Amino acid sequence: MHDASDLLLEAVANSAEAGATDIRVLVDLSGGMINARVTDNGSYTLLADPFRDGSTTKGEGRGRGLAVINESCRGRCRLTRGESETVLEFRREDDGSFNALEEALLPIFMAYEGVSVIIKRDARESRLDRSYLEKRDAVPDRAGGIRRFKAIVRGLKGEIYG
Amino acid sequence: MAKLSLSDLHAIRDREEKNLRKRNIHGRDVHVVVAMGTSGINAGAKLVLNTIADEVEKAGLENVIITQTGSAAPNPEPVVEVFSPKTGLVVYGGVDAETARRIVSEHLQNGKILEEKRIELTEKEQ
Question: Coil, strand or helix: which one is A112?
């Protein structure tokens, strides 16, 4: 069973699979709900219902991520395609999975280049992006980088949780 | 998230082995790959990935690099692959947090393969 942070991982992976080089994530944790928006510049094939299970452009047995998001959010999701970017939004109850922010963000920043994440909680917000981590040798895919990444995310968490 | 076929995984393996050889130059000769497809995440792959990252950091294993790949279904997930010059490619299935810790302490640190968790990758029937 996916928690809310797992859904974000699915969404970012979906963007990366579409060839996106710019993936912008906004997670708003206000009011007991999680509102997530993932904007990317990937290339997609239009489908009548991209959230339907089995609806995929990625071949047989592939690409269940959007269906899982839809199911977990009980339909409270939307995919909007513009000329140069695609926006996936979903909303569900806050299950506390982003409280473990380091664990939630580590798989995303470990694997995907071009990712930036803004976390909002009530009136506070903080931002982290992969290029910042790269400059500080803090990509969490090796010893040292993992430690530096966690220190940065702990600081970010302090900013938004007070 | 995509589910990779066995041929996809072989292609990734070939690529990673090439990368591994490149990384040898820089002293990172062990590569851990966690399958983070939809089915893997559902089975707890995120916890496994975080546990491996924590343990690699704690042990200060400077020669290890950790990455992700897509689904390894229909194999028992979470699936973790370890490439190292000493033991070659070893694939583990049904990995939980405790097994993840053992992969780091026994396999990565001491070169001992966890035979009871070792699997051979199989391809999904079409």
Answer: coil
